[in-house]
Amino acid sequence: MGLQDWFAGRIDLAFMNQIAGYTTQTDTRYTGSQATIAPDSGHIIYPNGHSTEASLTSTASCTFSLGMIDAAVLKAKTLTPVIRPVQTGKVGAVYAMFITPEMHYDLRRNTNTLQWGDIQKAAMTGGQITDNPLFTGALGMYNGVVLHESWRLPLFTSTGGSTTGRAVLCGAQAAILAYGRGSSSNKMDWNEELFDYGNQLGVSAGLIWGLKKTVYNSKDFSTVTVAVAHSSDATTQSAGR
Asked: Which three-class secondary structure state does DSSP give residue 104?
């Protein structure tokens, strides 16, 4: 069970580093055996008129909000070529967006009109109570985007010292996961050996694999990156991460 958790975490970390374009991490053990590629200028957006991550501050105008999701969806639908959503059986075509816990914190605590709290209160008025995200902690779905929180998304620091992060909207084929011959997610090298005359058991697992964000003609194929700052309150609450 420990090795299962370890491998799942390692693959998840590689995926987050890849889609976020975390070029600071050069050890390919943490990036799916492949170098990362930074988002190209046409596939990254910033809040409130900013044009670089270095200029972001922890003020409310630079933190994550529903408006940033709207902006990412608009870009995904108007790029050439457009970013195809993922086809699902129950809800149809959707995008997936990965956000940091700090972004989730800022999203839930935004008290402005027509933000997360207002939408969930309206849902409660309509009868959605016991499974409302305000109570369950689930992120839910907004504007055709399924929201997922991940603490493995990388963090950055702006010129002014504010902690920043990258939310990533993903469409179909945002990343590619490949296995070597004879390997798969369900087929790994597994060895168990006894030591010390049978008093100690050693277990090892191995996998030939690689993971990469899809990029064609030097442009991200199916991701839109949203660079925002974390509020000072969120940064304080998550100190040490």
From this structure: helix
